[in-house]
């Protein structure tokens, strides 16, 4: 397994944080969210992609793809597999992402509105599209089997893992790197979900994510 989340940047760190009884919800620091009425979120702090990948690669990836690749590298290392153990033609990558490169979309639309369409980055589309996380992971590990992203909102990763399991059970693949990646704690992400009344307005992080509470938001 591999993970990057508000509780930690690895499986071991995440488990240790959970065992300590700490929560991953905290005040938003990436931008001023006061106008949205939302002040806390599951924000990932101190993430350094270069810990597991070359900086020149990470700079060409949206944050959600960085999260996905970073986690996949940890998972692959934890599996104990080597290139000699895997037939690249029978190695697939199936990932889930509900919204894709939202950070890149916001940055490039802002740049276009301020400086004109000719200033939009040629990497805008490759960085923003949801399937880039699977494509990047496939390229990184040299996987030549099926590579695609499942987009089913909040169920994306669960569906992707199910697809991966069925592919192995059916004998269509020997190895599948699977999971989900999302990076939507930014201005447009918070504003959009706030407009749906899908976010908690609680200012206290300890009371912000209580889905089964009678007074849940």
UniProtKB/TrEMBL annotation:
Any Pfam family matching the protein: ketoacyl-synt
Coiled-coil zones: none
Cellular compartments per GO CC: cytosol
Domain called Ketosynthase family 3 (KS3): residue spans: 1-217
Keyword annotations: Transferase
Gene3D superfamilies attached to this UniProt entry: 3.40.47.10
Organism domain of life: Bacteria
A GO BP entry: fatty acid biosynthetic process
Entries under InterPro entries matching the protein: Beta-ketoacyl_synthase, Ketoacyl_synth_AS, Ketoacyl_synth_N, PKS_Beta-ketoAc_synthase_dom, Thiolase-like
GO molecular function: 3-oxoacyl-[acyl-carrier-protein] synthase activity
PANTHER family found in the cross-reference section: 3-OXOACYL-[ACYL-CARRIER-PROTEIN] SYNTHASE, MITOCHONDRIAL (PTHR11712:SF336), POLYKETIDE SYNTHASE-RELATED (PTHR11712)
Protein name: 3-oxoacyl-ACP synthase
Species this protein is from: Lacticaseibacillus paracasei subsp. paracasei Lpp126
